[in-house]
Amino acid sequence: MTRLHDLPHAAYSVDYQTLANKYRPVFDKIAEGALSREKNRILPFEQIQWLKEAGFSAVRIPVEHGGDGASIPQLFQLLIELSRADSNITQALRGHFAFVEDRLNAQRDADQGHWFQRFVAGEIVGNAWTEIGQVKIGDVITKLSQQDGQWRVNGKKYYTTGSIFADWFDLFAQVEETGELVIAATRTRQTGVDIADDWDGFGQRTTGSGTATLVNAQVEAENIIPFDTRFKYQTAFYQLVLLAVLTGTAQAAVSEFSQQVRQRTRVFSHGNGDRVDQDVQVLQVIGKASAQAYAAEAVTLQAAHAAQQAYQLHFDRDEDAEKQANILAEIESAQGQVVVADLVLQLTSNLFNALSASATSEEKRLDRFWRNARTAASHNPLIYKEKSIGDWEVNGKEPIYVWQIGGGSKEAGGKTSP
Q: Which candidate, 246, 238, 163, 240, places its Cα nearest to that of 203?
């Protein structure tokens, strides 16, 4: 079957090195404090502010609107570099770049200049979709309703990644009166909004992925967006952010373990030399991990080209071509996730073979690379991605683009719930 990588890539007006050089000084500053933030669970408010001031929130916005005009592959290459500095920050911005992508697609049919201006001004958007507790699949507890002529939203969201740093929520809700599913772009800094840093995962601990509670929070009517207009390759895009997180984590791990090898003076009597950095088996460990990280980046950027093709075809108004592009964007991102997750989880564990028990020191926190990778790779179970890919290859079944998580029809133990 035809693959998107068989098609020519579009020529991009923005040179990647010029684009990257704009942001690399900020990335370098971010990297300097990453270990300290990990040790002390310091949320990166300051570091995200640096990115906003540098214009990173508008990196995808067209040049004529004040942004950098980056393509999707260029965005994800930048996100890999940012993830090498601190993968938590990339994940914290996941919801922002997805909302930006949605507004870029919406520009085809309606002017989005007001949103573009906000992004250029440094405003960012956080995620607020998932609900936990007594919620069944298909239900939406967060409700939007009119009160005294104003739209108000009430509900509680978990996994609100990045929202604690953000100016807006990308909030999934249901209109109480009609049952319509919508995105309610809601200002985070207003009465009735509380965002807690209560994420308790063992990895990606500073992404701000906690609970948001909204009590009669106001939503402007022009910021209520029908969910069925959401950009079609959104699931692929969200997965690409995780692939960038994983790839950058892999690169950071290879760099840090290489430095640890260079600094190590103690050798084993049954090793292969008087210096660790000359031990051929140690070098083999580093070499294999480096190759795996290289492969992860190549796969991630290839999948990003598939999303770019879906974006471009959206503006051609050829529904059949766009549908095919969206299918392949989803399939390629899933293929990438399956392969990259395994590569990165292996290398972040196997790199410990280059050192010894001292590498497990809490002071060094070298386990952070595996913990962060394991957490990022757990967001969307790989087994379902593998099944979806197989169903496409064997049966030509179109993948599911939008899915939910919630209570099933049966309780644990097989008892039917009331």
A: 246
